[in-house]
Amino acid sequence: MLCTRSGQNSSGVFSVLSKLDEENQRLLSIIRRRVDERNSLVARLNDDPALASSDEHLGRRLKHLEDTYRTWYSWQENRKDLIDTANLLEDEDPDIRDLAAEDYQSLLKDYTNTLEDAFPSLLVLPSKTNTLSALLEIKPGVGGSESSLFLQDLLRMYTRYASLRDWPSKIVAKEDRDGGGMKNAILEIVGEGAYDCLRWESGVHRVQRVPATESSGRVHTSTVQVIVLPLTDEGNQQPDLDNLFDEKDVRIEVMRARGAGGQHVNKTESAVRLTHIPTGITVSMQDERTRAFQVLRARLLDRKIQSDTKERRDTRRQLVKSADRSEKIRTYQYVQDRVTDHRIGLTVKGIAPVLDGNGLQQFLDALHTNHHHALIEDALDGIEE
Hints:
46% of the residues lie in helices and 19% in strands. By secondary structure, it is of the alpha+beta class. The chain has 2 domains: 10-122; 133-233 and 290-313 and 325-380, Alpha-Beta Plaits, CATH 3.30.70.1660.
């Protein structure tokens, strides 16, 4: 049997392809089913063209499946080319064999890249929240005044990060603390994809540092809780995320606003409290009623998304545990000048760049990648987002 200079022959090529297909049998089975589903949907639309405009879910599903369909048939053509090239690897002409060997390496690389990257990524459906903006609620935890000061640091970090992404941001509510720092803050970040990008920031952020008032140099540990809520543009709402509440289910109370130290503000009846009666969710803000309804809507939308996610994941493990907002997710260790994300075990030297907004992206990217891999595993297990 003739061989190329690389030692490859036709039987070896067929053995390689068979092994790759066997190793990816579960993946290929799902891709085939989706190609069949795409063909079935196309047939339905050909029989009834009106479905394209009347069934939005069908249209979105078909759009996603088209990418799978194109990649599948491109991969099939790639496979055919590999088989044709395999036959040339045993040609009597050594020059043809060598050229075929070069083509084989290039074709095999494309073949394996599709199996390892393109097909797995196609298993992940587009996020239903990928167009949403974000509303960040930042609250102090343990640590008293130091917690309030760290809250202020995190607020600045997110504001700076939004600016670096060219996302407009606005502090829609805040309460300053006597002696410095803040009691709480709500930050609005407007930009397509802001929620999906920042959702991993939900949880307890821990800081370990020596307070400016600590004369003995003892390290204090303080915490701040961040809750990232989805924010919709009311002029461009999504059908799956609408109908969150009926205004008749919201009790509206006008209260006397409070200033620093708990004193009543001179102008009374300047604060509003909303209570969504069916869920018990409340919003109290020293601001106009519109802002309070915006926060209420964000909390209800978040509740809906979390509920939908729980229903899909009751029988599975969740690799990124960001849904548990009482869990410590990240530690900012000043003495060692490092930041550690405990969900993925990522530690980065240099706190200043992170709190300045620039260094936050590497954590967000790593968390997104981890989540993406988890979704691929879920799809292979028959669980989809």
